[in-house]
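Supplementary Methods, section 5.1.

A reviewer requested that the exact input to the structure prediction be made available. We therefore reproduce it here, unchanged from the version used in the analyses.
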Amino acid sequence: MNYFKEVLWDPAAIERTSMAEIEQHIAALKLDDGQKAVVKRIVHTTGDLNLADKVLFHPRAVGAGLAALKSGAKVFTDVNMLRAGINLKKLRRYGSTVYCKVHRPEAAEMAKKLGITRSAAAIRMFGSRLNNQLVAVGNAPTALFEVLRLVQQGIAVPALIVGMPVGFVGAAQSKELLTKFEVPYITLPGTRGGSPVAAAVINALVYLLEDQNE
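The structure derived from this sequence is encoded token-by-token as follows.
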């Protein structure tokens, strides 16, 4: 067999074919159109069909995220890897952009002074700026804990929290705590997650908004 001849080379065709296959696998799940778009993008990004029925949505999550983006809300992230994964070109069409302060010297200084992680310090530096904005956490559980601390103290209530920290220390606990808040959220329970997953959620929302405006 000539394997190279069988390869699908067109990027757009590859994505269409992938999404069609994912659609077949998730057809039985009880998801509305917005939730389905998010799940499909997560599965496409990770190549893991087992995640399809694991994603948790606050009932208002997709609607709140779309409404916020439509009004020009910004996206705040815990790490630059997540920032880099977001389709900034499309996001900017709606007057939005992405912010991350984790590598700023002042974040490192605050982290050292307070004995917290740089990711948590970066979120703390944003403070009330997170109010009515989108917050995406794709790496550090401490960043998600910090977001929830700001909510609990009434400092900021984001329009949507995409909580996807990954790992074996604090990730599952931070996401479990997230689901106890009334703030709209999209999360993946347990140890799995990561910046690509969080970026996939934001991109799914941007593409949904784009589809609505066609």
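The radius of gyration is 17 Å. These observations are discussed further in the main text.
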